[in-house]
Specification:
Order of helices and strands: HEHEEHEHEE
Number of strands: 6
Radius of gyration: 15 Å
Strand content: 25-35%
Distance between the termini: 42 Å
Length: 172
Amino acid sequence: MNIDEYFEKIWKPNIDQYRYTGWKLLDHVSDTDMVLDVGCGYNLFKPHLGDQLVAIDPYNNAADQRVSIEDFQSDIKFDVIFCLGSINFGSEENILNQIEKVTSLCKTGTRIYWRQNPGRKDHKNKECESIDFFDWSFERNLEYAKKFGFQVEMLAWDNGKRIFAKWIKQDI
């Protein structure tokens, strides 16, 4: 099974289990923030954020736009970006290209909230065994954030299985 089929037919959201990258993220969004949700899945934040939120996903029709981050076009520079399990697949080159695209949508002070898979094939189903999960780490967060002009404000384990990271765009 390839990644397209997995996310279209098998994957289901489990947002309630996350301490940092679940519903608590709504506490970090003000009424004036424009938010981009990259790989939004079933677009669960839409009822809470309404028109403040642009939600994209290449595999799910619940998205505002069914498009990959690589193909997403916007004139908006966002205040907040959620990357909650979406930039987790493929080679380091692929990940860096996706981060570069995400950061092109930021302005000084933009906050990116990440949920990252540290290379684990722990979805408890055989369908994801062939998916190439990227091996995220705390060290890679520090390295990549610096490379793209961000400061890492927080790194922690979320639910013991995923990395939570908060990056803030610095002045260039």
